Amino acid sequence: MVDLRFDHYHHYDEMTDILHAFAKEFPDLSEIYSIGQSTEGRELWLIEITNKETGPAEEKPAVYVDANTHAAEVTGREVCLWLVKHLLEGYGGDEEITGALDARVFYVLPCLNPDGAELYLTTPYHRTGGGIPNPEWDWKPGFTEEDVDGDGEIVKMRVEDPNGDWRESEKDPRVMVKRAPGEFGGVYYKIFTEGVIKDYDGGEIKTAPPRWIGGTNRNWPERWKPESRAYGVDVPLDEPEARAQADFWRTHKNICGGLAYHTHGGLIVRSSSAVPDSELDIRDIATYEYIGDMGTELTGEAQYPSVSGNSSLFTLDPAKPRVGTAKDFFFDIMGVYAWTYELWDMAGMAGVGNFKERGGIRFTRFENRTEEENLRLLEWNDGFLGGDGFLDWKPVEHPQLGRVEIGGWREKFTWRNPPPKFLEEECLRSGTFMLKYAALTPRVELIKADAEEVAPGLYRVTAVAKNQGFLPTNVTEQALKAKIAKKVTMEIDLGGEAELVMGGEKLELDHLEGRSHRVPGRFYTPLGPKRDPPGRFFGGMFITDSGDRSLQAAEWLVKAEGGAHVTVIASSEKGGVDRKSITFG
Fold first, then answer.
1. Angle of the 12-25 helix axis to the 114-122 helix axis, nearest 10
2. Distance between CA 272 and CA 264 in Å, rounded?
3. I want to staple 393 with a disulfide (CB 3.0 to 4.6 A). Which of 86, 88, 204, 405 is the partner?
4. What are phi and psi of 508, to 5 degrees?
5. Please, how many CA atoms are within 13 Å of residue 217, restricted to the half-sphere of its CB?
6. Helix runs in 210-324, H state only
7. Global pTM value
């Protein structure tokens, strides 16, 4: 059994060994392969998980999960490894997992940005981006993060200045409080990230360009425009990791949903980040919210809420929405539901309220937190971390600024990622979301495939395909709007033993509805054109008398001798493939 424990953060080589060990231990359930290489040549490992005995992966509905898009967000890598372990070791003993792997496939890519993540885990730096060296950093002056005191960490730095905006709290000197307008006569500070000033001339302190650029999550051609470029991105898909990801999605059309694990804040973000809900179909919003609420329930007492990426809770400036995100590319361009799952919520753990309750994204900036909120956070640190998450302010001689004080939150594994002691708990809380979603994907099955002899040697073959899943075979209304949703087809394979008298060998049916139209707010409208009353006709399809839009049927007239075989095949790009063999006579 693979020795996988969640008491530390695994480096790239460890992760690689773990994934290969799982694939070796469970060859009937898993396959590992690289979908491409990073800028520095690291393989982008993806593990495919399904029961191979029940059919090939490409013929089953699929869900896609990745993590570590941003270098600093290494928690997602661990949740992906936990999910792999949970699925593989649970097969055969857990009914939910067994059913999922028999009928569906999981594509799990634990680390999309291995270069930046390795820098983050092995150096003191926070802003490691995609690990791509920025040539401008070499020559442009300004402030840049650096481990000034040589303790292996980068925290905050406060500099005493009569014009400073901050002072110590009277309740706890570790806490910095915003200076009130008109307040004078105290000791005041300016606050910086711990760092140095390149080519400092004693004047205004400017900010140097980032040392590394890239980071993938604004690298997508979804409403991207030049003025919205971020992370040093020049054009969409100019990073090899994003290109590899796009190529994988393009060649795996069976993917019905996607999720990217990020950090932090404790929330589940749905589309769209680029536009308000008024530009989305109300049925997609209702389904998104239904599934998002399901995800919230899975988090238990933590209550990670589901929010729109364009809401005021998640977007500081609605005039400057996030564009070029993978999540929105998945929804807008590929027509499937996708989420950004922001793992870990230290503030919620400290009792300050969940993401919605404390006012959303504004809380992530230290200048927006109140004195009482900061005091409560430190109380949690002292009680649950033994004070280890915060470094007391200490005097240090700075190479340019003279005497400064260095201290503050050890953010890498407090705010950004959970301390290792809480890592497994976070995996348990957040790891099963896509397992639950997989059960909702469309699943097309042949519930009937038989033949009736209507004359000597002449048979009427009837087949009925039904969507047994929750979501329709088009998955989203957006897929219909974008005209990318492929309809269900029904095919008869004569196998050289029969002759088709009437009907086409391959027929295009309509989309098959699931149960999602029953979600409150997702009002029902027909998926296809108005049809005549149900009736039989050779070589075509009909709706059963029940009016159930989750199923459709097809008929053929076939000439064959007794004992001959034909195979009926129902196929859906998102709902999978099912086959039934019919023997005549």
1. 120
2. 19
3. 405
4. -95, 120
5. 22
6. 240-251, 282-298
7. 0.93
Tokens of 426: 């976070």
- 3-state secondary structure at position 107: strand
Which amino acid, residue 504?
A: G
Over the stretch 277-311, which tens digit does the pLDDT of each residue have? 999 999 999 999 999 999 999 999 999 999 998 98
All structural domains of the chain: 12-120+214-281+306-344+434-438 (3.40.630.10), 136-200+351-413 (no CATH), 444-583 (2.60.40.10)
Where b means 16+ CB within 10 Å and e means fewer, 427-449 reads: bbbbbbbbbebbbbbbbbbbeeb
Q: Which residue has the tokens 């680029």?
A: 274
Distance CA 128, CA 211 (A): 7
Amino acid code (one letter) for 49:
I
Outline where DSSP puts E strands in 156-225.
Answer: 156-160, 166-168, 176-178, 189-193, 195-198, 212-213
Average pLDDT of the residues in 334-344: 96
| pLDDT tops 90 at residue 480 | yes
Number of other residues whose CB lies within 10 A of the CB of residue 414: 20
534 pLDDT above the threshold of 50: no
Which ranges in 93-189 belong to alpha helices (H)?
A: 95-103, 114-122
